[in-house]
Amino acid sequence: MKVLAVASEIYPLVKTGGLADVVGALPAALHTHDVAVTTMVPGYPAVLNASEEWAIVATLPSFFGGRTTIKRATVGGLDLFALDAPHLFDRPGGPYGDLRGQDWPDNPQRYGALSSAAAELCTGLVHDYLPDIVHVHDWQAAMTLAYLHYSGLPRPKSVITVHNLAFQGQYPPTILGSLALPQRAFALEGIEYYGMIGFLKAGLYFADRITTVSPRYASEIKTAEAGMGLEGLLAGRAASLSGIVNGIDSQEWNPAVDPKLAANFSTGTLGPRARNREALEKRFGIDHDASPLFCLVSRLTWQKGIDIMLEALPHLVESGARLVLLGSGDREMEAAFRQAADLYPGRVGVVIGYDEALSHLMFGGADMTLVPSRFEPCGLTQLYGLRYGCVPVVARVGGLSDTLVDANDAALTLDAATGVQFHPVNAPMLQDAITRAIALYRDKPVWRAMQKRGMQLDLSWTSRAGAYARLYRELLA
Hints:
Elements: E1 2-6, H1 18-31, E2 36-42, H2 45-48, E3 55-63, E4 66-75, E5 78-84, H3 86-89, H4 107-122, E6 133-137, H5 138-142, H6 144-151, E7 157-162, E8 170-171, E9 192-193, E10 196-198, H7 199-206, E11 209-212, H8 215-220, H9 231-236, E12 241-243, H10 273-284, E13 293-300, H11 306-318, E14 322-329, H12 331-343, E15 348-352, H13 356-365, E16 368-371, H14 381-387, E17 391-395, H15 398-402, H16 409-413, E18 420-422, H17 427-442, H18 444-455, H19 461-476
Parallel strand pairs: 1-2, 1-6, 2-5, 6-7, 7-11, 11-12, 13-14, 13-16, 14-15, 16-17, 17-18
Antiparallel strand pairs: 3-4, 4-5, 8-10, 9-10
């Protein structure tokens, strides 16, 4: 079975969050289910520079404002198509914005081009390639399904995966002409969304099946509280909507062999974690002592509950614990954590930015990882924490609820607990969760059992990929 995946990021070539991890890990896992995935991504410099083996398979002389080619190569085991459109993607900065963090004003045209080219691949642009399924990820690729619909040509079955409903790609209707879509597309039964053009809405409307990254989140987004304005559409398509929990790359995230750690360890040899802890203490300039060490690896945004974390931080420090943080985002939140590090020297350490290697070390050396998100489609940091014996302390929402068993009395009695959950999502409840986590940490036999239980879970893509393969086969049947 041939599947064309379409996405704006893919690990390890370009990454801003969990989307890239999923898109990068799923093809290899699906291969074991006789599914061949080729992924189409924008031709960012980081993508094109990753290989010298790119072959041009199609040329589009005048495409969204410039000469464009579609190139194909296998890079690091990933079969890829790259949309080489220098006028759209050959720029400094990140995938979506400039070096100052400002979104590119032509993002709708950039990802409209990605979607349009993907639709062309689905209808025979490349003579030796025609997919059975097209699987698009998030708003940047969602318009693929609109281009396919309005082409009027035979098209493959389609799946859209929503990694975060908060990012929808909404733009004014004045750009419709620049997207090379017919005027009739701007309708409720098309791409129109509350008077705007809705990229994600279009994908949700035209997809044969809709998935999101956890069963609970699939249920939540059908409600006004979490539906972000799309709950009516999603509730109407409930029969086509399902949740499949994300996995992690068990080779990339393996504490027994991870080269990013100061010391490797496994469930049978947790002792070396102490060396990772010492490396963290030195890296963040915090005290070297036996007190519990929390870590937070996150975008610093309202969604991630970072304001709640700031409110609960004095309680964490007063409880005798320490915190190390790696992240970036809201400038005010960045400044607040820098101030906290100054206010609590030796107890709070902060690195603003993103560092893949440092994140591995944090999960491999800290005792607990905090995920106080207001909503979380799936979350990967709690999975990394489980894998590395870094016990997650999380809000009971979305995939955070689906992937952990709270350490309540019943779960502890049944030897089932893998983390600490709290709800509702506010500072007092987070403080209570921190208090519970510290009490568990001080009971060493219980704590070690929780660490090992989390590390022994099958968090890989092996079982998750099977759910996608079954979904594809249902569609083709």
